């Protein structure tokens, strides 16, 4: 029987200006000591990976892979969440997203978008060079301000939005297909792909492009009360990556899903360390295993109560081990 | 002991081009036959009320009141939901809201806003002339696209938004205060006042303006899983108007609160005829009565399954009668 | 198949100084108009019944029965709740219970108790003369201040208490047995018989006296979160009388079962009009019918929200009719 | 961010006539080996502390502190639960509470009370000498037999009771205030302060005395079905001490909250070893941390199934560690 | 929008030797008075219909239809539940099923089966002659004793069973297809088609025969804890007939789904009058309407507590009316 | 206080043709290393035990016991599940059960039955020789195909079935009684003793035979939604053996309890490794301990997701240790 690989860890939330969190080597050593077997690598941080080189040079990739392997670790996937997001942004969010752009592209959405598209394509090639089967990214969002059907939307607006989104992504997806790498969209609030219905809308708009895949992260489904176990029943064939991230939803008489424009800590729905939230990881590991998922289980950590180090340490104990 | 008044009905969703739904007289006759005692009147439909006249002329108001009374009915509140919405709109929604503007103001948000502000002020004066204590409206929205905290928002953005919203509303609220009429904001998705936290934000931004009140409608809270009974515990002193509207929330493995950009009928959260949804009206009537609410219980009808006529007829039986 | 008789109504909470609630005739006429078929009669109110006469004179009883019958009603049971309570009182409550004693016995618990015992015995005889099979009363309470096991109680204290309680009741129970009338203790907070365990303790202390029976009232079980449906499974053979009374329990972060010494209206557990509380009457009627209960279903009304008249009227519609 | 201190252990339930449980040294050694960092010390046991000396002599206190420190432990709080209880007792409980009085005061409630008041005052001073910020006690109870509103109470009785309770405590509270020590009442059944409502009643009766604080113990709230998580939302500013104690409530068709006068083991609500009951400690640790609680988490152990040693050992593993 | 037709009533459980329940005319008059609009007619009772004639003679059918119409009623469907059952029986049940066979076929399963097949075919033709679109029947059962996978079954046994079942039904289904009538299998315990999985097995075994349809009856799903609302999501396109029948499932510490070989009344799962059980009819009517079901809602009554007459009367009020 | 013994392990599901699972010695060594203290031994596998010898020879038994003891293990119980099953089989299952019979008895149910009866008797004697107090077996089944009351059963059929079952078992039970060994029937689907009601039926049919006991295994109760905690309340005096086995029940819109003739993995109800299913083992250990159960807790492992080795290892950690 196929089994899930793990435990692995996504480095994004641990990167810091202080050692050992300010170098790939430092992070790898730290993760290996904690017992992790795999690492998911963000591509928008200089000291992690140089995407331009990685896309061109097999030597560079072999060296990178070897460096990670020297700590007894494997790369699980590269991540272009940030760049994927910039492939499609609604004007209402444009200024806020500029923080993720290279200095010379800030304030220039068309150029920023072009750069982002190029980055994601390069990540596809680099993934293949690194021997990876899956890649982690965001779809971006053209429609989020229309998430509630008031004011009434012009007929066809949603369909148009997904047509445009598909149009931007299809050339990228073609690269993924050529490289034999699954393009896994993390299904996430604010992204146009934020649930099952929107994944289907996008898949259809791309004509059922075979590179279209899912990064499954149950924490985002708790925040919208979507049945994350049934989600696996519906979409298991598309799930090629998996974030072990926990969250909780505790509505009160003052706030519900929409959250009252609060900070994370003040919200009814918020992220927690694995094991402290409401996600039934046993149920998820059971279902993924039943459907033959043999990709990685990658801890993504975000918690408003605990420190990241405690989260990383505990997650190893609580979240993953029993099923591997 | 004070008791809730009712049953009443909000005419907005019943207005139609066909008799008896195309005249105030027709609607009143129909409602009275169904057994209603009060009617909530939208002010953006010509044949219902002329706000300009109503604000100026006591005779006009007396005549209007008499006409309604001739059917054995009372006016419960006027409504400026539409105009209130136009007091504050985010650019992402501007074009879509133009449908509510007079022809000559379409495409001109500043002028449209000025007109809207004037309308709501006039409704305050008209309400006083009609002997009403409460008025129903929307706050409008400057911040809705930021409902989820991604992308990360510039520090202070939310506070600024509410400052601006308060700045626009304070002159209007002053008119309400002068007229002795409560300005009841229907707490509603997409409006900046959409839960308890945001109501508090707004109240604080207005310096605790004494005209600031709440139109309580539980159906909108079901859609965000907010505890609508506790809501009454927290905010009962501000509740001066009440919509009897039902809704349901049935998340699946494909969709949750965010709804996948679907039509009403396809959403996990959707409005239903009173009695067909998940709202515990007994609990609400009990709490409102305990806190001494003596305003009206006004049916607002919206259902994707039944016809409006059936809804109006049944609601009378199921929803309201037992508590009056 | 045997079926439950009803609907009936307990007059106690409706008695008032104003007509029609200040005479047996007035109350009967009122109840009959509402559609009731039976009435439960409190015996501590002069104009309802004269227990001394009723115990002695068959003529008096026949006349009383005839008077009630003239309204198309039957007497369901007599009630000596008040007198039964005075058979056993803890000193901590003595002064408060004096309100129920005849003037000349106030402040003299031994004499008050003697009077109470005599009253209950007379009610047994009167019941037989009236052709009744069951009688409604309270057990009184010697132990209630020890309801929580802190401070630690001397070993055997509880057993002693029930021995004393049984000693006081056995002579009364003998009269009930002689008259062929079931002595139904309403299982009720503060009474020593307040749940199933305490009923068993009492039954055992009386040596399984065959007159010992239960007046089943689910409202008191909701207040202590006892499973009132299973209660019927355990004790159905003893249930000979039944109060249709509703209640609700809504604990918060400020109060739970103990109630914070609040007034009824402020308590987490409180009585409500039938249909407004949390009692599953369908479940109860089903179980009682399955076990062959053929006594009366008697509305006992107590609600902090509605008026008694509304309660009596609605109960008829909601609570009882479907099962008869 | 402030964090909870721990794990600590309350010695009261472990004291025994056999070593190592019959000396402070023995208990400290045992607790330290189990991994505890703090100990809560009962003051009514001779070999633990001599309150008279401790109130007078800084040397005595320094020595005591040093002795505890020699095991790598800190004193978290002193406890005068027993003496606090004797500050106010209802006559219905007086004889039973005599077991806690010194021999020469038994049967003499006024003298017993005076002694108790003196003891608690001395504990306040001793606490300051030991460098402690909080103290653990009981409020005592004047009103418990009136916990259920039957028989009907004379108007104002409850208010009077709290006035008297405050009158007795204010002189004590003044000492606490002078010493800069929080007087933490363990909110507990039978005590007049047994939920949120009664805490507010007492606080108000003392004129909002600033020494009035709460010892939060969720196990007592499970027994009355009070929402112990919301409790923290309401009263966090008063919570200065915390007992990690677990309990469960399993009502049946025979018994509910009131418990049928049963022994602990036979009750629907009963205490359990931490981790074996129904308390959501994760939720509690999260909320306390969010509100900045930086006092101690002190295990109080009481279980009718397991031995105390097993309880102490497991609690360390299950209950506290994850949040420190 | 298409809407459900109703209310209708299935005559099977009401037939009796006493008037008015011993003739079609009597039953029709009784049903019409109760307010029903349609009647479902069992075909194994002589005085209801003569299937041989009905299959041959259009005159006979016209006359029958006219007779029913004379009471203001329509025939909704014919039923061959009994005959359908006899198309496939496991030897373990053969003797018990003989009660449904004509006298001369008892004890002769092959002949009995042939007769049954012929009857169902005739019902198909008669249905077309009567202008009906749907027919109600049972699939019969070859595999029920193997419902639990112990003892371990020979590999392929289940598949073989469904192959045989399909082989027997395909010739019948061909007749239904020719006549343009849907062959609706009531999904029911003991039948080989007893849930969704088995319906799919059968459908596949028939090669997706287009006459294969479903008679949806939620009461049978409550008995097996199948999610009857999701069932509609999965199989709505096959649902062509609908029984309004209620049931409840109340497991205890003594019995669960399997029922302990008890009588209906003693079982954890048992049928109840509509409105007295646990079926959420509002949810069902909503879903069926959403999916465009425009067939009949037919009361099937079976209850161990109430009389059939009461059930028929109440169902009309409670179960169906609100959605038509 | 009496405590449960453990952890132990049932060897049946671990036996394999590969070492160390193909010899008693190998299995014992493996189990002891995992930390088990006891082993339950199936008697239908040659290399485990020779029942004929064990029944005759004390030496053989002493040697066997010694061999097991040499690994630091105790025998907890012998098992004749397979042979007990063959004491009573319904013809519908006969062929499938032949797999368990010795070669020369296949196809000859009477002889097979005689052999089975003899085996179980010998196991009783062997158990006594081995110093065991309890024995594990199945009741067999004569009635399972009648588990659902359709088709209607001849009056008295169920009673007859249990009479026959008792008739077959009484001679065996007499041997158990003589040997002072409890005959524990594992309450299990398909066995005639499959819940509480059927246990009572059997007990009554044997005239309350004192050897009749229960092997309690909660996993089988989850599959039928029987309240397995209340089960202990009802039948604790009969529980003499206990399987720690877990299971889950997850009905969907396609399948419920009956399971659609699916394989284990595809069923709504299915077995899982201890800790991965829905059984509340804490509740069970608490109740068994409260009722003084001092027999063994024996892991029986069966899981469609994990390997047996992982299950055995984890169960030790999760399931049993905390209560011993």
Protein model, in words:
- The structure is a homohexamer of 324-residue chains.
- With 324 residues, the first copy, chain A, is α/β, with parallel strands linked by helices.
- Chain A has a single domain (5-323), classed as TIM Barrel, CATH 3.20.20.
- Chain A has twelve helices and ten strands.
- The first copy, chain A, has helices at residues 24-34, 51-56, 58-69, 81-86, 91-97, 109-129, 157-179, 196-205, 219-222, 228-235, 281-290, 308-320; strands at 5-10, 38-42, 74-80, 134-137, 182-186, 212-216, 239-244, 246-249, 269-272, 296-299.
- In chain A, the strands form two sheets. In chain A, strands 1-2-3-4-5-6-7-10 form an eight-stranded parallel beta barrel, surrounded by four helices. A two-stranded antiparallel ribbon of chain A has the order 8-9.
- In chain A, helix 6 (109-129) packs parallel to helix 7 and helix 10 (228-235) packs parallel to helix 11.
- Chain A is globular, with a radius of gyration of 19 Å.
- Chain A starts with a strand and ends with a helix.
- Mean pLDDT of chain A is 93; it is low at 317-324.
- The interface between A and B is large, with 62 and 62 residues.
């Amino acid at each position: 029987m196929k089994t899930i690989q793990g435990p692995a860890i996504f480095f994004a939330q641990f990167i810091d200006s202080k050692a050992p969190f300010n170098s790939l080597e430092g992070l790898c050593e730290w993760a290996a000591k904690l017992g992790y077997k795999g690492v998911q690598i963000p591509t928008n941080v200089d000291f992690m990976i140089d995407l331009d080189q990685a896309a061109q040079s097999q030597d560079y990739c072999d060296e990178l892979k070897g460096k990670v392997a020297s700590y007894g670790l494997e790369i699980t996937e590269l991540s272009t969440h940030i760049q994927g997001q910039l492939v499609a942004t609604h004007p209402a969010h444009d200024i806020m997203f500029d923080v993720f752009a290279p200095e010379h592209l800030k304030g220039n959405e068309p150029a920023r978008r072009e750069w982002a598209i190029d980055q994601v394509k390069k990540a596809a090639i680099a993934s293949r060079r690194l021997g990876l089967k899956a890649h982690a990214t965001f779809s971006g969002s053209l429609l989020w301000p229309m998430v509630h059907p008031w004011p009434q939307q012009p007929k066809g607006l949603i369909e148009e939005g997904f047509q445009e989104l598909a149009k931007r992504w299809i050339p990228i997806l073609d690269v993924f297909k050529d490289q034999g790498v699954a393009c896994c969209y993390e299904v996430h609030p604010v992204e146009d792909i934020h649930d099952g219905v929107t994944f289907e809308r996008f898949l259809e708009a791309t004509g059922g492009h075979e590179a279209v895949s899912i990064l499954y992260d149950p924490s985002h489904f708790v925040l919208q009360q979507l049945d994350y176990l049934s989600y696996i029943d519906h979409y298991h064939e598309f799930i090629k990556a998996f974030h072990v991230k926990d969250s909780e939803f505790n509505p009160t008489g003052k706030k519900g899903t929409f959250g009252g424009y609060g900070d994370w800590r003040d919200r009814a729905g918020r992220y927690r360390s694995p094991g402290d939230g409401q996600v039934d990881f046993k149920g998820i590991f059971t279902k993924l295993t039943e459907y033959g998922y043999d990709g990685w289980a990658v801890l993504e950590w975000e918690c408003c109560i605990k420190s990241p180090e405690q989260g990383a340490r505990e997650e190893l104990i609580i979240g993953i081990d029993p099923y591997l």
